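Encode chain A's predicted structure.
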Amino acid sequence: MGKLYAEIDARMREFVAAQRLFFIATAPSGDGGHVNCSPKGQDTLRVIGPTTVAYLDYTGSGVETIAHLRQNGRVVVMFCAFEGPPRIVRFHGRGEALEPGQQEFHALAAHFGPLPALGVRAIVKIEVTRISDSCGYGVPLFRYEGERDQMQRWAERKGAEGIDAYKKEKNAESIDGLPGLSFAGESS
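Encoded structure for chain A:
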């Protein structure tokens, strides 16, 4: 049932844009370390080109995805249809985390419209090397109720200095000791 695609065509772009939730998975190199899978939402992903996607990465309690991308670049993005016809889409590729202050961060930011004043720690850009879909028959149906507002309220309470301190404490390295944010002390 699964199919491979040469690029993200208009039909797949429409499917991706309709998904309220997607998952990012990465792993460190070698036999050791922890595999990471993170849920993402809040309309943070954009298809930039036929084989390029990017998403806003908000400040969080861990930095696994960024650390793994810095180490080896391997990443997979997975979308599941929780409403409508069943479908799973996966984008395998090579990613990089672009932090505020880097030139390409600002160029990619234009694809997202106005960014929140606080909380965005990076834009993850992925060059997709394998595009596939599968049936998704095992994915349950869920109804979308709305976005959570806790993240933005948390960022506003912390303020720029508080977020910088939080990133220094929580985002300087991964749980396996890999380097995380390179600009951990700069304003978000």
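The domain at 3-170 is CATH 2.30.110.10 (Pnp Oxidase; Chain A).
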